[in-house]
């Protein structure tokens, strides 16, 4: 059956995360309901590059699905968008070989975390950036971030309940961009564990506020103990920005 | 009784406009409910520089209210924000003479209308910019906008049901800024009639799409007939940006 790869974007505010859960509005369930309707009730499964949590946004999540419908790839985008709610959009649909898999073929991902460094509330950013009203030392945050680069066991930086066995991941870059009061931290790597980016950000914030020093990072990494790292930063500042394939 | 001037900002998406209406969530009713609560049930009235319609946003709406509470001006901001919902924020509170009036003392206003010129849907902009997917000739829109500058009778460019007698207003500037796919049109003037900015934008779009020519504008102005101007652009692209006082 023909397989399609699709890049999608969603405002995570109104979803209980990506993955199907009973009686919850999730990205996967909305997508599957629309595809199933297009297939006259025949269930269609969607596979994503990975889950995102409740409240987490996506600018470039990647999914794949199979369909026997004779629809050219360039017509799929419009057909899906005409049926999808406004907080979930299809950005592109492409034909791919039947061997393509959104999760297993992903070679890496980029996440961005957006902080709003201000004491003033902003009604327009409240769901799209994490307001942080205290002073931050960006230089020590950048210093601390260097210790995350390369290949490490990130047991200390993922949710304690993470089920995957192998917690070794490679982070290729962590960049900081400050524009007006918005601080964007971009993470690129070969893969990220459950809550990993949010715990990295929470820990970097504790360095930036002076509660910890950059040199604490290698020690925390070495201990492989979630209790030693920082708080999990809230979901609404986090964006799955893009997924890389060969 | 001491009078306070306050600059407020709101995401208009969740409000049925500024003004109190029975059984509707409006900006005024939320503000007055919070102030009344702070005054232990004693009703407090709020006066604004003007109304905004359902769905219209504000980055710098100005209100005033009177209060006998012994709260220093700089503590008011925090006190109000702690009780206000997240889609409505107080940006500043200042003591003003009892003669100050948010509406009668306003010398001018700036509105901005934000268009997203793209065929792609964007879940993050859906409530904050009007998506316009067709080609636009910006040059002819700018030419057309010149005819609005200065003092004119804007009867053709306000809602037919506008009750105010005098429909003469002065527009001081109309600026266009294109950044990525966002076109911002800034209007500054001494006052704007009901739906005026949205009708100006709707008419400029019809010039930009080639349905009308810039030279139609002076003719439409001269006829003082709402039926001759363009459609009313949707509210969610419109922002009351700031209010000017002496």
Give the SSE layout.
The structure is a homodimer of 246-residue chains.
Chain A: E1 3-10, H1 27-38, E2 47-48, E3 57-66, H2 73-83, E4 88-96, E5 108-116, E6 130-131, H3 138-146, E7 150-153, E8 168-179, E9 182-189, H4 196-208, H5 216-223, E10 238-244
Parallel strand pairs in A: 3-10, 5-6
Antiparallel strand pairs in A: 1-3, 1-4, 2-3, 5-9, 5-10, 7-8, 8-9
Helix pairs in contact in A: 3-4
Descriptive notes:
Two copies of one chain form a homodimer. Chain A has five helices and ten strands. With 246 residues, chain A is of the alpha+beta class. Chain A has two domains: 94 residues, Alpha-Beta Plaits, CATH 3.30.70; 137 residues, Pseudouridine synthase I, catalytic domain, C-terminal subdomain (Alpha-Beta Plaits, 2-Layer Sandwich). In chain A, strands 1, 2, 3, 4, 5, 6, 7, 8, 9 and 10 form a ten-stranded mixed sheet that branches. In chain A, helix 3 packs across helix 4. Chains A and B meet through strand 4 of A and strand 4 of B.
Largest interchain contact = A-B, 17 and 17 residues
Please give the CATH architecture of the largest domain in chain A.
2-Layer Sandwich
Overall geometry of chain A comes to globular
Largest sheet of chain A: 10 strands, mixed
Note the quaternary state here.
homodimer
Overall mean pLDDT of chain A: 96
Number of helices of chain A: 5
Low-confidence stretches of chain A: none
What is the terminal-to-terminal distance of chain A?
A: 23 Å
- CATH topology annotation of the largest domain in chain A: Alpha-Beta Plaits
How much of the residues of chain A is beta strand, in percent? 25-35%
Structural class of chain A: alpha+beta
**N-to-C order of helices and strands of chain A:** EHEEHEEEHEEEHHE
Report the CATH superfamily of the largest domain in chain A.
Answer: Pseudouridine synthase I, catalytic domain, C-terminal subdomain
Rg of chain A (C-alpha, Å): 19 Å
Number of discrete domains of chain A:
2
E-strand count of chain A: 10
CATH class of the largest domain in chain A: Alpha Beta
Helix content of chain A: 10-25%
């Amino acid at each position: 059956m023909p397989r399609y790869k699709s890049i999608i974007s969603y405002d995570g505010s109104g979803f209980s995360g990506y993955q199907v859960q009973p009686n919850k509005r999730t990205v996967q369930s909305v997508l599957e309901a629309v595809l199933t309707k297009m297939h006259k009730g025949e269930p269609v499964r969607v596979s994503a590059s990975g889950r995102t949590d409740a409240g987490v946004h996506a600018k470039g999540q990647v999914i794949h699905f199979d369909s026997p419908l004779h629809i050219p790839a360039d017509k799929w985008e419009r057909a899906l968008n005409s049926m999808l709610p406004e907080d979930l959009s299809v950005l592109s649909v492409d034909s791919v070989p039947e061997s393509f898999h959104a999760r297993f073929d992903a070679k890496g991902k980029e996440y961005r975390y957006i902080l709003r460094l201000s004491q003033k509330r902003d009604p327009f950013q409240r769901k799209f950036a994490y307001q942080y009203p205290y002073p931050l030392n960006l230089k020590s945050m950048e210093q601390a971030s260097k210790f995350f680069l390369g290949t490490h066991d990130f047991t200390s930086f993922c949710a304690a309940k993470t089920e995957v066995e192998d917690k070794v991941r490679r982070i290729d870059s962590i960049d900081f961009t400050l524009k007006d009061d918005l601080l964007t931290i971009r993470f690129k790597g070969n893969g990220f564990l459950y809550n990993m980016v949010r715990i990295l950000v929470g820990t970097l914030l504790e360095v930036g506020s002076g509660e910890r020093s950059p040199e604490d990072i290698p020690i925390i990494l070495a201990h492989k103990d979630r209790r030693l790292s920082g708080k999990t930063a809230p979901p609404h500042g986090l964006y799955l920005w893009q997924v890389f394939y060969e």
